[in-house]
Automatic annotation (TrEMBL):
This is Putative peroxidase-related enzyme. The lineage of its organism: Bacteria, Bacillati, Actinomycetota, Actinomycetes, Micromonosporales. PANTHER family: CARBOXYMUCONOLACTONE DECARBOXYLASE-LIKE DOMAIN-CONTAINING PROTEIN, SI:CH211-175M2.5. Gene3D superfamilies: AhpD-like (1.20.1290.10). Keywords: Oxidoreductase, Peroxidase. InterPro entries: AhpD-like. The keyword Oxidoreductase applies. GO terms for molecular function: peroxidase activity.
Length: 209
């Protein structure tokens, strides 16, 4: 018998749930397991997505730097779901060897700024009380200004919260996500919850789409 996609049942149908499912179908071609979990409060999902977008809207952080931080955060948190998703995104913005390296804690192919952000991400995840002013100065020395340091730290915290909710409620990486990921990225993700096996969609799911 196949394991469930998450510990929670699918949420009841509503216009907001249908809209969230439809957005996944348009962007990914399937409804993500994590979306089913978050759609117990689709209003919170929408607000959280908007908050993250607002944080980055006027930021000096590049798309690649953002992807580096999420990949490093997910790996440090042992979150397979976000590691596969953002490892793949980082591979698109760089190459799969670079992405796999970040997922394994190797930053040799990153720029000085990117490596500093990857290290900062891991430190925030592992022990946010450990950093000192000297650690922040290293970020400045790598070329980050104080606003970017705040934005990076807030972004890491947002991603950590997102991963924590998904992992705690048993959201398993979608098989489509794993199949689409570059080989080196898949091989680097040896932690977290196992990828969900392919299943036949229930009639209620197709109705929600």
């Amino acid at each position: 018998m196949n394991r469930p996609a998450a510990f929670l049942t699918d949420p009841p149908q509503s216009p907001a749930v249908t809209a969230a499912y439809q957005a996944d179908l348009i962007s990914d071609g399937y409804v993500n397991n994590l979306t089913r979990v978050w759609c117990w409060r689709p209003d919170v999902l929408a607000s959280f997505q908007a908050l993250r977008a607002d944080l980055l809207a006027d930021s000096g952080l590049s798309q690649r730097e953002v992807a580096v931080m999420v990949a490093a955060t997910a790996a440090a948190r042992s979150d397979a779901y976000c590691a596969l998703a953002w490892g793949s995104r980082l591979a698109e913005l760089s190459d799969e060897a670079t992405a796999a390296g970040v997922l394994q804690g190797v930053d040799s192919d990153l720029s000085e700024r990117e490596a500093a952000l990857a290290g900062w991400s891991r430190q925030v995840v592992q022990d946010p009380n450990a950093p000192t002013e000297a650690h922040v100065q290293r970020l400045r020395d790598a070329g980050l200004n104080d606003q970017e340091i705040f934005e990076a730290t807030t972004w890491i915290a947002f991603r950590l919260a997102f991963s924590t909710i998904n992992d705690a409620l048993g959201a398993r990486p979608d098989p489509q996500l794993a199949e689409k990921a570059p080989r080196l990225v898949r091989e680097a993700v040896t932690y977290g919850r196992q990828v969900q096996a392919h299943t036949t969609m229930a009639p209620t799911d197709s109705g929600a789409a």
